[in-house]
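Example record for the data management plan.
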Amino acid sequence: MSPRPYLTTDVPGCGGVFKQVPEDFEVEELPAYEPCGDGEHLFLWVEKRGRSTQDVAKALGRALGLTERDVSWAGLKDRQAVTRQFLCVPAKKAEALVPTLALPGVAVLSAKRHRNKLKTGHLHGNRFQLTLREVRDVGAAKATLERLRATGLPNYFGEQRFGGAGDNAAKGKAILLAGGRHRDRFERKLFLSAYQSELFNRVLARRLEGGTFAKALAGDVLKKQLTGGEFLCEAPEVDQPRVDAFEVSPTGPLFGPEMRAPAGGVAALEAQVLADDGVTAELFIAGGGETLGARRHLRVPLDAQLDDDGGSVVRLGFTLPAGSYATVVLRELFKQD
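Corresponding structural encoding:
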């Protein structure tokens, strides 16, 4: 992974430790919609502890006599955490068996039918409750969060996007250079997405270093925070108040043929990031449907609450939109990679 500058470089790290126990990291999915009560699909509201989403899905499939493709989810949740999320299974095959389920580290809190299958991305975001222990400088933590609340959180992809060895992006680039071919469909999607994510992070890093990640620049593709609507910035002096109000934000590239292109100096910056890596935008055509391209907010609003006991334990609460990472908040607090 390339270096990622902090937004709050001038504020020291607060120190401390995290994830001593799963309860230190609680995540609750915010669904894009609630199940309606009828239909062919069964939405299971599941609480898991110390297990990954894929692990629970496989165990659920085995217990219910389902194939791996029968079990779906909106988003992946951490293993070392207590998380609540929806998993979706075929109602006809599974409904009668759900009350008998007994999976270690998993509790099915409710089950309700819906008319469509749950798919990746069918969520608004996630609500986090985090506990930091042995914090040395609570004042630094408060100062960092205040800055993030005022300016927005840099919308980096977190390190988990790039694999345990940090080489998923390099593997994605190699797949594109080989014409898009790879033996494993799941790995292909994972690695190609990681390469797009790495290039986005590099663009965001340059905007942070240049002091423009929260600035409307001529040629920017601005994106509405609530609806996702995009438009080209032609008059920065008109659009900057909307940026300051978090109505819209500048975006960075997830390169691909269907991505809306910026103009002017913004286009030149993004082209330079590609050139520095020895590739061109046309390379992403080889990724087919996995690298169609999109624009991603360079920042997201962060309305975080901090409670401390007057000692070294700090509790944080905040909500992030789908695709944004709590680890980026922690990275700004700890100043550690």
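Summary line stored alongside the record: The first strand starts at residue 17 and ends at 18.
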